[in-house]
Design brief:
The chain is built from 2 helices and 6 strands, in the order ααββββββ. It is of the alpha+beta class. A hairpin with a 3-residue loop joins β2 and β3.
Length: 109
């Protein structure tokens, strides 16, 4: 839960981890780092600040799974996830991003 800690707390933790890896080769240090990072809940997600139609601020997360919607206060738990297979079209024009989600109940005439 990194978002609940101050920047100075995080800096101190990084320095203590750094000191604990003295004597490791560069390659082993990278492997250990990746083992820690890939278990974080937001690993591989690229966040973008967006506003919905009502002007409410959200974080849009893009990942290998799809498009996720997060509140600013909590990046670890998505409010809504749209998997890639659910998406029909993505639009971007004049700073407006829109997504069409497949609705299996929709009747086409």
């Amino acid at each position: 839960m990194l978002h609940k800690h101050s920047l100075s707390f995080c800096e101190e933790r990084v320095i203590s981890y750094y000191k604990s890896f003295i004597g490791y080769t560069r390659g082993l240090s990278i492997v250990n780092y990746m083992a820690i990072v890939e278990n974080l809940p937001t690993y591989g997600i690229h966040f973008y600040e967006v506003n919905d139609k009502d002007g409410a601020a959200w974080l849009l997360g893009l990942s290998h799974q799809g498009v996720s919607l997060y509140e600013h206060a909590d990046k670890t738990k998505a409010k809504k996830v749209y998997f890639w297979r659910q998406l029909e079209n993505l639009y971007f024009r004049d700073k407006k991003f829109s997504i069409e989600v497949y609705d299996p109940k929709r009747q086409v005439m």
